Amino acid sequence: MTLPGFTGSLLDRADEARHDEAVVGAMRADPDALLLDMDGLHPIGAEQGALGWTRLRHVTIETELALLGTIEGTPRFVALQPGVSAVRRTPELFAAITALPASDAGTYATARSLVDWHARHGFCANCGTATLVFRAGWGRACPACHAQHFPRVDPVVIMLAQHGRGADARIVVGRQPAFPPGRYSALAGFLEPGESIEEAVARELKEEAGVTVHSVRYLASQPWPFPSQLMIACIGLTDDDALTIDRTELEEAFWVTRTEVAAALAHEPGARFLPPPPYAIAHTLLSRWLTEA
Amino acid sequence: MTLPGFTGSLLDRADEARHDEAVVGAMRADPDALLLDMDGLHPIGAEQGALGWTRLRHVTIETELALLGTIEGTPRFVALQPGVSAVRRTPELFAAITALPASDAGTYATARSLVDWHARHGFCANCGTATLVFRAGWGRACPACHAQHFPRVDPVVIMLAQHGRGADARIVVGRQPAFPPGRYSALAGFLEPGESIEEAVARELKEEAGVTVHSVRYLASQPWPFPSQLMIACIGLTDDDALTIDRTELEEAFWVTRTEVAAALAHEPGARFLPPPPYAIAHTLLSRWLTEA
């Protein structure tokens, strides 16, 4: 069974250390301590197949550091970059991620989400005052109103609606206007306050494709660091294959068979659509649907 | 199968309407439009077994409104309260929630999380400027840097570690110091950036109880509006029943058998522990473990 992309990081997050400045100080002073090589939000050297790390003692640090945790006992840090650009995705970045082993991609996801969150959350949402980093980079505290702020993780449901069973089963795939030409994927949307996962899945499928599902089943999850989502992959069943496509969200959507999904995942010439990339959980979802559902 | 608490709201969130001021204006002008009766964050009258609603045209509105959606075609709003108290939980509140049907509790959860988020997020985290409500109450926009901010939903994993199988199976329950006397529940913790659900479950069980789990399985989810969590309930298996309790998180934790869990859920005299309340997903988790796992 293939693990979803960005999972399998070898990081021990050492959460308890974050609360103790002396412990964090000792980790930072460790002669073996490592700093993640980043150019803005880009993982330097990742296209060669591994994250790059530099000994902390060999670099001059001009910004604050966040403690990522330890790998094989060695402390790992990333530099916070208050002015880092919010450029979210480039072909170079996705080539680099594709080249990384899953464990390194997971470590990068953690670092990227954290650095990006700090860059866009320098002020207190409660009172507007500039905040200060605390807990070794895992929060920001307000010196004025004393509110504490923690990195966001935004849950997103990503799902297939399935019509029919067995060999006759079909699922809905759709494409957003920003997708590369030919690519189709699972539908997705942000879960809102006051919803369960199952309710968000049903709502999004209704809104985007006009499909009513029941028997929603959870399949897998992954972090998605653009900027910091938790992708929650599900399948729901429907008894009605009529589609009403919300054109503000989707450029197109249609039903596909098992044979068509298999052809797409195999990148066969003449396949009806191009699949999502392997590191996206939509790819995991389509693969598992073929084998498990 | 019992649905988790706070799920089953009859709200149609009418997401598409939020983007169209004319549509929201028409809903607000609807003579049947209703406003949720709230005293701060308390649902007025809920202890009588239903949420209270007042016709919008009968009240003087001095604050902004958020569009909750429609129920049975009737628009439903809640008043935003910039200065609302952050008192989080009172016995009166939990009595009221217990009295509500699940569908009303779910609608209340949505309203409460939204009102509370606005009250604590009046300023732009990116630049410190006071922000303005937009999208019919489902976001805040910064007039200075144009950043858009959306209500937070914080994913939390809540889980059982199971040792042994069948009739010999046992699970870990623990108590936080703030729990009512005698109450034990599933362990829980916030999911962090860069983690999957399965990874967060394994990390939290390791941190809080020293238990290493494999084969993590998703069971159910619920919204938890204190202030705005998504509770994700799972079970993991372990081959080692040694416990190393993190006393900064837990006052106590121990293994319990099926018989002990059944006695607790039935509130039998002499039961080894008092269970979590029925509207908490930990209750759902324990109940389903008895019948399904």
From TrEMBL, chains A, B:
Coiled coil: none
SUPFAM superfamilies: Nudix
Keyword annotations: Hydrolase, Magnesium, Metal-binding, NAD
Annotated Nudix hydrolase domain residues: 151-278
Cofactor(s) needed for function: Zn(2+); Mg(2+)
Gene Ontology molecular function: any one: hydrolase activity
Reactions that this protein is recorded to catalyse: a 5'-end NAD(+)-phospho-ribonucleoside in mRNA + H2O = a 5'-end phospho-adenosine-phospho-ribonucleoside in mRNA + beta-nicotinamide D-ribonucleotide + 2 H(+)
Assigned EC number: 3.6.1.22
InterPro entries found in the cross-reference section: NAD-cap_RNA_hydrolase_NudC (IPR050241), NudC-like_C (IPR049734), Nudix_hydrolase (IPR020476), NUDIX_hydrolase-like_dom_sf (IPR015797), NUDIX_hydrolase_CS (IPR020084), NUDIX_hydrolase_dom (IPR000086), Znr_NADH_PPase (IPR015376)
Name this protein carries in UniProt: NAD(+) diphosphatase
Family statement drawn from the similarity comment of this UniProt entry: Belongs to the Nudix hydrolase family. NudC subfamily.
Organism: Sphingomonas abietis
Pfam families linked to this entry: NUDIX, Zn_ribbon_NUD
Species classification: Bacteria, Pseudomonadati, Pseudomonadota, Alphaproteobacteria, Sphingomonadales
